[in-house]
Amino acid sequence: MPTALRKNRTQLIILAILALLLFMAIQGMSTKDWVVTLLRALSVGAITFLVASGFSIILGLMDVLNLAHGTLFMIGAYVGWSAYVRPDTLIDLLPPLALLLAGFLLGPIWSNWLERLAWGSRRRHLWPWAGLILALALLWIAAGKFPVAIWHAQEYTDSPIVWAQNFERGLVAESLTPAPRGGPALLALVGLLLAGVAASLSLAGLRRRAGQMSGQVAAAARRRALIGCALLAGLGLLIFLFDDTLTRFLLGLDTTLLFLIAIIVATLAGASLGALMESTLIRPLYERPIYQIMLTFGLAFIGTELVRAVWGRTGFTMPRPSLFAGTGDGCPAASIGGWFTHKCSTILLTFGEDTARIRTYNEIFVIIVGLIVLVAVWLLLQRTRLGMIIRAGVQDSEMVEALGINVRRVFTLVFALGVGLAALGGVLAGPSMGLSDAMGANLLLGALIALAIGGLTSYPGAAAGSLLVGLLQQFIIKYGQIGINLPFLDAPFKPSPPLVPASTILLMVIILLLMPQGLFGRRE
Question: How does pLDDT run across 453-492, given as a tens digit for each residue?
């Protein structure tokens, strides 16, 4: 025990000093003020943690510095808003995505088929590239012909700002104009299916040409590919045929259920985008870290411009679900039961003669989700077979591959998990922070500061650093309102808003001077 204390002496001293500073900060406030400030700090820390933990997992397990992580957080927020406020757009987009992916699923069949062909003529080396060009042309034409009901960011009356206002008033269903359905739309779906087929065939040819095929594909794998393609194509066609019915069903749901659907959609969309990034762009650059940084930095700018093109440059709100938006009779709630009964946006906490209003979404729901994710991801990484494979693959990927485990697929899952956490943070931040094209950069900066404080590659460090960033920011903001009584000053000192980000940077600098690896980082 004494050896462990000596080894972690600096860390324990810093933690003790931070705890003492927190205790001193609390002493300058009333019970109501410090409880509310603490809950707000936990809320900010939970959202920061979702971004920081995904970044830490990708960096710690894959040694990839993903500078596009903040943009992916922002994309998660905007995708969640779209599924929440405009579910008709989501329903319209599902059929073309399903048909396109159905064509991609045929890849194992083409690989097996190409293995049986002679590979002699040089001209056969050119057809995969020609097939990719054909697939892109089909995708461009078919996607442009398929009708999708969507907003128009350049027209104020049809912009996301107005649609968010209509959603709060319950006027979305009345304002919708369904996209036309008919022969041209069905032909566009066929074109998307053919584009997926052509792309999967061409990619199979490129992999074979690169010598990456392992031999004949098992019959079971071919059957799975055919069944998956048929099921996905059938699902896409069913959604296409019952588009209006599904849209009316979603719009008829309680907004709390619709928000949960939006959370699932945004998280899955983020994870899918992460898997696509890793498998197509990051994987060839594992041995070139500088290129990884340049690539992800460029992707951050591209993603931001795409968001501006689709949703516009102006920020707008994401309405809270009904469970956290009630303001009528019985609100603010005096108890948890009263909150569930009246669906209040605030709940009262009594401290002697003082009463504090707590926002049920920001200071309760977001914190609970953050704690659930913290525990769930830790259990996944430390207590499951997948976590064991991930950790073993990082240490010795060749040994793991010798056991018959596809390490590349596991790394893709890791990257998808990290980006999915960022997207989850984005959709949760929407109702509390609002949406803007700068939210990704702001959150990434806070997450990087939190990781530097806690340890860049440490999952517990991401949680601790995010908590410290949230506490410091919220206490500075609160003292900016009530002031700090300092010696030799006649009036209380009130920190100005620029001191909020400056204080977190100062804390990061101090900790890094004392512990260059961060509070919980590994010593290199």
Answer: 998 888 888 999 999 999 999 989 888 887 777 666 677 7
- Closest CA relative to residue 365, chosen from 256, 251, 250, 475: 256
Q: In the predicted model, what is the mean pLDDT of the chain?
A: 85
77: its two tokens? 């927020």
Is 474 within 8 Å of 37 (Cβ atoms)? Answer: yes
| Cα Rg of the chain, angstroms | 26
321-328: which pairs have CB atoms within 8 A and are 24 or more residues apart? 321/254, 321/255, 321/256, 321/258, 321/259, 321/361, 321/431, 322/254, 322/255, 322/256, 323/256, 323/360, 324/359, 324/360, 324/361, 324/365, 324/431, 325/255
Question: For residues 267 and 427, is the Cβ–Cβ distance under 8 A?
Answer: yes
Burial profile 82-117: b = 16 or more Cβ within 10 angstroms, e = fewer: bbbbbbbbbbbbbbbebbbbbbbbbbbbbbbebeee
> pLDDT tens-digit profile of 409-444?
888 888 999 999 999 999 999 999 889 998 998 899
Show the tokens assigned to 51.
Answer: 């971004």
Q: Which residues contact 482 (CB under 8 A, 6 or more apart)?
A: 29, 33, 492, 494
pLDDT band at 217 (very low <50, low <70, confident <90, very high): very low
pLDDT at 428: 95
Q: Residues 150, 86: contact at Cβ < 8 Å?
A: yes
Give the pTM.
0.90
Contact of 89 with 319, CB cutoff 8 Å: no
- Which pLDDT belongs to residue 215? 46
Element (H, E) at 354: strand 354-359
Cα–Cα distance, 192 to 211 (Å, whole number)? 29
CA distances for 90 relative to 146, 183, 186, 273, 409, angstroms: 14, 21, 18, 16, 28
In this structure, what token pair is assigned to residue 356? 């504090």
CA dist 181 and 187 (Å) reads: 11
- pLDDT bin (cut points 50, 70, 90) of residue 2 is low
Helix/strand/coil (H/E/C) assignment for every residue in 276-328: HHHHHHHHHHCCCHHHHHHHHHHHHHHHHHHHHHHHCCCCECCCCCHHHCECC
